[in-house]
From TrEMBL:
The keyword Heme does not apply. Keywords: Aminotransferase, Transferase. This is D-AMINOACID AMINOTRANSFERASE-LIKE PLP-DEPENDENT ENZYMES SUPERFAMILY PROTEIN. GO terms for molecular function: transaminase activity. InterPro entries: Aminotrans_IV, Aminotransferase-like, BCAT-like_C, BCAT-like_N. PANTHER family: D-AMINOACID AMINOTRANSFERASE-LIKE PLP-DEPENDENT ENZYMES SUPERFAMILY PROTEIN (PTHR47703).
Length: 351
């Protein structure tokens, strides 16, 4: 849960009365963005260095392939007088990180002075936009035409493992374009999927064929699947003896390289948990033992139920009330593998 709060934009700190909700702000402004939260009673930003790196990567991707997602009212071709950055540009990365950190330092101390309820943290979103007006002034390096905006709102962290606190997810639409970059236009584009949201569903999943599941609209999606389709119980001792593997779609299939997604991979490697980058297949859902979604605000959340339309084509042909759904229900408590991964990530975060 995140509420409206403070905004730093164009050198000015805006207070709650003048700050729109984060979704409204992102819909209204093009750019690459990243969202994280504070932790340990707002002592620090969660995995901030990783977020800055991912944000820099998103800016480079958009500048190179789709500058119209960075610059408002800009055609798909960058001003020919400007030089798009090469794939590896230390100056661009350092400039973006410096601009973002400077902006964070302008607004975060203001937000921290405000009284928050017990258990609340702060959700922090940094948006890098292209300033179209500066394009005519920039002579060579396009990063000189970039602006940074920072939105800060109160956030109540998700509590892992509480009964009834699991996610209910449904597969409702195709994967997104330029999925390797996190950009604000997706906030507007994904609204068209809302008309397909079944009752009580808390996250919408994406698939291009109704079988291979890519990711969620705002999360990455994982399953714990029995290997070789063996119907066995969890084994004790060394995790390498487990007949299970964690699966999630590879970046190349069209998913966001989420910060927590990478931490899940690292946790699996650290704990010896079998892991494979492959899109979880609904046709094999009978072998799924656990499922969870990840994001920087919720960290990890177990999935308690998943729904998939049957047939897939009915999404385009029928109204929501006419669609039939296949369902899979998971156990009420987090599974052993999910809990083990979550514990490893929380320890790395110092939570």
């Amino acid at each position: 849960m995140t509420s409206a709060g403070f905004l730093y934009s164009k050198g000015i700190v805006f207070y709650p009365a003048d700050t729109p909700p984060i979704s409204t702000f992102l819909e209204s402004n093009p750019g690459a963005y990243t969202t994280t939260r504070t932790h340990n009673n707002s002592a620090s930003l969660l995995f901030w260095d990783r977020h800055l790196q991912r944000l820099s990567n998103s800016v480079k991707i958009l500048l190179t392939s789709n500058p119209q997602f960075l610059f408002k009212s800009l055609n798909s071709t960058i001003n020919p007088l400007l030089t798009p950055p090469p794939p590896s540009n230390p100056m661009l990365e350092s400039t973006i990180k410096s601009l973002v950190n400077e902006s964070i330092n302008k607004v975060l101390p203001v937000a921290l002075r405000e009284t928050r309820n017990e258990g609340e943290e702060l959700a922090v979103t940094a948006l890098v936009t292209g300033n179209t007006e500066k394009l005519g002034e920039v002579k060579r390096n396009i990063f000189e035409a970039l602006d940074v905006h920072v939105h800060v709102g109160s956030h109540v962290p998700h509590v892992f493992g509480v009964k009834g606190n699991g996610a209910r997810v449904a597969v409702v639409g195709p994967g997104r374009n330029i999925a390797e970059a996190k950009y604000s236009d997706w906030v507007r584009l994904r609204k068209s999927l809302e008309k397909l949201r079944p009752p009580f569903v808390t996250e919408l999943l994406l698939s291009n064929d109704g079988d291979r599941i890519l990711e969620g609209c705002v999360t990455n999606f994982f399953v714990v699947c029995r290997k070789d389709n063996r119907n066995e119980k969890y084994l004790g001792g060394n995790e390498n003896t487990l007949p299970y593997e964690v699966q999630t779609a590879p970046i190349g299939d069209g998913v966001l390289p989420g910060v927590i997604r990478q931490l899940v991979i690292e946790a699996c490697l650290s704990k010896g948990i079998p892991f494979r980058e492959v899109a979880p297949s609904w046709s094999e859902h009978e072998f799924w033992q656990e499922a969870f979604i990840t994001s920087s605000l919720r960290i990890m959340q177990r999935v308690e139920k998943i729904q998939v339309p049957s047939p897939w084509q009915s999404l385009e042909l029928k109204a929501l009330k006419e669609i039939s759904w296949e369902e899979k229900q998971f156990e009420e408590d987090p599974g052993m593998i999910t809990a083990l991964i979550q514990k490893e990530i929380m320890e790395k975060a110092g939570l």
